[in-house]
Amino acid sequence: MKVAKFGGSSMSNEEQFRKVKSIILSDPKREVIVVSALGKRTNEDDKVTDLLYLIHAYLQHDVDWTPLWKRICDRFIQVRDLLELTFPIEKELSAIQTRLQNEKVSQDYLVSRGEYLTAQLMAEYLHYTFVDAKEVIFFDYEGEIDYEKTTQAVRSFYEQQTTLVVPGFYGANPFGKEKLLGRGGSDITGAVLAKALNAESYENWTDVSGIMMADPRIIDSPKVIEEISFRELREMAYMGANVLHEAAVFPVQEADIPIQIKNTNEPEAKGTRISNHEVEKENGLTGIAGRKDFLSITLFKRHMSDEIGFIWKAMSIFANYGISIEHIPSGIDNIGVVVSAEAIADKLFLITKELKEKLGVEEIEIIDELALISVVGGPHKELIGLSGKVLSILNQLGIRTSILSQGAQELNLIIGVANDQYETVVKGIYEGMVTAHVSETSDGITSNS
Ligand code: ASP
């Protein structure tokens, strides 16, 4: 069986519901369906989840929330009517409204109603059974998913009825009350259910045809990565390529269940398959990701390399200020510490002072407005050629890199350039390695020429 999760844009109106139904019915293995709340119909539109968060804020400040509530009600009623369903949505909506008027409802209860109602409508439309997430997704006292309890509950529903619709984004806390999984959390619901049912695959249906090799805001229609390993995905996601909630990866990766990213608006497109399998890539390149606004702090001290524990002591100073370290390029008697500029902003002076006073650091060089670009490669042997190609592209572009390092697992190459050169470098690497490669091979010239 497969677990299929449909995001908010796949559930935004009656037309999207129709597409989702035909996708589900085209593969009888798509038995357990997870849905997000009605999403944006156009760029200017609002997600039901966002409106519900707003209503909760309005309630706290005693602002009239009824116009927002009416917008939500109208959207659900419209979908129900256009699909000619019989679900008594007005009754459900008025029960929620009564609670809002008479009680201090929790944010988690209120916001989760988006998924709850969307799943009710989808269940009727598919003739599948609705299962409240509160009955199948359980949290423990630490706020973590209680897998034992969850697995037992999911399996017992599935034994009685295999075709189920479950609202994403929430579950039950140990007191049986709604608890949210955090923004974008329906991805996690799908992954948890796939693991609990030991699904053959976890399909994640969204509005893009997979994970792209580079940011589409920089590269015009970048190629989609058809196969990516969980490890490569982690590299891409950490550096900013976001398609899937990061926490959705762990449950399925552990259970060795592949994730298939698919586009509801283009179901024939292959999408991206994410699995434990490392596939050799054409030209050695999986993708390029990156982020701006880092700061590099390089510490110089004579004979630093002979001093046991120096790096540890330096890192503890950053840790004591709650600064997460992104990267540590090092030389013989110097180490660089790359951190988020925003995170360190008002602590920079105190940290450098401590480094000098406590560790005897002699010189500190700071480079700000730094962007990090991660060039993610396939399996190890592919990467050998990759580094050489990237370096020659940087050379051709005449770009000076302040950081250049290869990950310990040799899966990626990290390049530090000035913020304002970020787009040029991403473009240069993509064009040099992907676009040029495609045109060369189509001309019949070998790809490595
Ligand atoms: N509807 C929720 C959100 O917008 C959860 C989800 O879509 O995954 O964050």
From TrEMBL:
Residue positions binding ATP: K5, F6, G7, G8, T206, D207, R217
Pathway: Amino-acid biosynthesis; L-lysine biosynthesis via DAP pathway; (S)-tetrahydrodipicolinate from L-aspartate: step 1/4; Amino-acid biosynthesis; L-methionine biosynthesis via de novo pathway; L-homoserine from L-aspartate: step 1/3; Amino-acid biosynthesis; L-threonine biosynthesis; L-threonine from L-aspartate: step 1/5
Key words of the record: Amino-acid biosynthesis, ATP-binding, Diaminopimelate biosynthesis, Kinase, Nucleotide-binding, Transferase
Protein name: Aspartokinase
Record-stated family: Belongs to the aspartokinase family.
Domain annotation Aspartate/glutamate/uridylate kinase: ranges: 2-263
Highest taxon listed in the record's lineage: Bacteria
